[in-house]
């Protein structure tokens, strides 16, 4: 099978392969990343959707090739270097060509039975007659990913659309033109982020200062964007009664011995929350996991990440084996990690790993919020402020009680709804009966 240079946008005519993740002769499985492509707009890893052996690399790393050019060949077994087209027609194997000579695969009509490997969702596809539901393609049609998506969303039959792009390719404007005659099936607008220059142009008459992105902000943006796009989040919220916890904290702090004229420790609400989550994961071990693509990793200990706000970003230092530590030990370790995090002195092993994290905005008066999971964690707990709220009594009256809203974000690939609810219920039990954290 020929692997073609995918098209990453309507206006992108070529791409640069920055990295090959596989070498010639290596076995390929569906989902394996083959190479990374760079254009003037995006950088994207391109996966395989078929199995075989990487027989040829025709466009080496660092080389630019036009959209549709054959960049590699995947054969069905080791040593077979023929492309799908050669195998189907009985022609001799193609000799490798140098990158500049790689001709776009769409420049000439292929054999009737030839099908280039599909690299959805970025790859244009030539296919024999196939039924794609409402967005059915005519025999031999070529369409762009955006056009296929718009057609599927608007219920447009691509078999009735005439392409106006190069070589008769069906592009987005063709689908939009077809949809304009069918107002009952609106077409979603193409989701394209505006460029920096386009955004700045909106504020040409407004004074502003440009703040360059540092590596931390770039990393946060990349990781959380990927998390929001690739992790199937769902959210579970629960109101807790923290009165007993607040009273126990006050008593513990009041009883703290002095050390050089100052209390030896001062417990925070967050220290109790860390301990409660650590014990909850021990009680519900099926939730003490992370998704590892082709498997699930389940942990023996509860390693809890805690979001720490920094100037220009945040870090999530990890309290290791938190279920084994006392509240005072957790408090001291958290203070030390927070200090070094704000001084940018944390070591990688101090903020990497863990299966969950805690983000507490209660001290800022936030009553409730949801948080984005920090990969590879399976969950993150968003903690709001303890507030006095009116609740109905059994006799129909109203009284004010302290309540704290927490929201658990879950990765649905590994934590289902019932499992997440079980974890949150265990956490609630420790918070509302904090003495159980001490035994």
Please render the helix and strand layout as text.
Elements: E1 2-4, E2 14-20, E3 27-28, E4 33-38, E5 43-47, E6 52-57, E7 63-66, E8 70-75, H1 84-89, E9 125-126, E10 142-143, H2 145-154, H3 172-179, H4 196-201, H5 215-230, E11 233-240, H6 243-254, E12 258-259, E13 262-263, H7 269-283, E14 289-291, E15 296-298, E16 304-306, E17 308-310, E18 313-315, E19 318-319, H8 327-342, H9 348-351, E20 356-360, E21 379-392, E22 398-411, H10 417-432
Parallel strand pairs: 16-20, 20-21
Antiparallel strand pairs: 1-8, 2-4, 2-7, 3-6, 4-5, 6-8, 9-10, 11-22, 12-13, 14-15, 16-19, 17-18, 21-22
Helix pairs in contact: 2-3, 7-8, 7-10
Features:
439 residues; OB fold (Dihydrolipoamide Acetyltransferase, E2P); Chloramphenicol Acetyltransferase; four-stranded antiparallel β-sheet; six-stranded mixed β-sheet; 24% strand; 25% helix; single chain; alpha+beta
How would you describe the overall organization of this protein?
By secondary structure, this protein is α+β, with helices and mostly antiparallel strands. Helices cover 25% and strands 24% of the residues. The chain has 10 helices and 22 strands. It starts with a strand and ends in a 7-residue tail after the last helix.
Strand content: 15-25%
CA radius of gyration is 28 Å
Distance between the termini: 63 Å
Shape: elongated
Quickly give the structural class.
alpha+beta
Précis, in short:
This protein is of the alpha+beta class and 439 residues long.
């Amino acid at each position: 099978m020929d692997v073609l240079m995918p098209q990453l946008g309507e206006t992108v005519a070529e791409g640069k392969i920055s990295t090959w993740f596989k070498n010639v002769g290596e076995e390929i499985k569906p989902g394996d990343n083959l190479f990374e492509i760079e254009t003037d707009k995006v950088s994207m890893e391109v996966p395989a959707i078929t199995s075989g052996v990487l027989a040829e690399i025709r466009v080496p790393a660092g080389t630019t090739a036009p959209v549709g050019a054959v960049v590699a060949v995947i054969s069905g077994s080791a040593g077979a270097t023929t492309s799908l087209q050669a195998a189907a027609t009985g022609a001799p194997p193609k000799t490798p060509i140098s990158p500049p000579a790689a001709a776009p695969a769409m420049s000439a009509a292929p054999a009737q039975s030839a099908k280039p490997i599909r690299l959805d969702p970025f790859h244009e596809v030539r296919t024999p007659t196939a039924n794609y539901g409402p967005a059915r393609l005519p025999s031999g049609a070529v369409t762009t990913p955006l056009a296929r998506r718009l057609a599927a969303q608007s219920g447009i039959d691509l078999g009735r659309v005439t392409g106006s792009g190069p070589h008769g390719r069906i592009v987005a404007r063709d689908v939009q033109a077809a949809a304009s005659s069918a107002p009952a099936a609106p077409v979603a607008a193409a989701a394209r982020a505006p460029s920096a220059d386009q955004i700045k142009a909106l504020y040409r008459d407004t004074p502003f200062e440009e703040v360059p992105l540092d590596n931390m902000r770039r990393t946060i943006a990349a990781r959380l964007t990927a998390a929001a796009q690739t992790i199937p989040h769902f959210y579970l919220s629960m109101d807790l009664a923290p009165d007993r916890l607040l009273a126990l904290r006050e008593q513990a702090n009041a009883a703290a011995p002095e050390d050089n004229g100052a209390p030896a420790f001062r417990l925070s609400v967050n220290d109790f929350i860390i301990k409660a989550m650590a014990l909850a994961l021990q009680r519900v071990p099926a939730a003490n996991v992370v998704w590892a693509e082709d498997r699930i990793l389940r942990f023996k200990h509860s390693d809890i990440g805690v979001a720490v706000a920094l100037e220009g970003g945040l870090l999530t230092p990890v309290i290791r084996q938190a279920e084994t530590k006392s509240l005072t030990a957790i408090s001291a370790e958290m203070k030390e990690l927070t200090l070094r995090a704000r001084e940018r002195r944390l070591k990688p092993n101090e903020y990497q790993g863990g299966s969950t994290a805690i983000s507490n905005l209660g001290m800022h008066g936030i009553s409730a919020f949801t948080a984005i999971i920090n990969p590879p964690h399976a969950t993150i707990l968003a903690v709001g402020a303890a507030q006095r709220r009116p609740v109905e009594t059994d006799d129909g009256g109203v009284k004010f009680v302290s309540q704290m809203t927490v929201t658990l974000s879950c990765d649905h690939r590994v934590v289902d709804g019932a499992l997440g609810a079980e974890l949150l219920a265990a956490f609630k039990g420790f918070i509302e009966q904090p003495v159980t954290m001490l035994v």
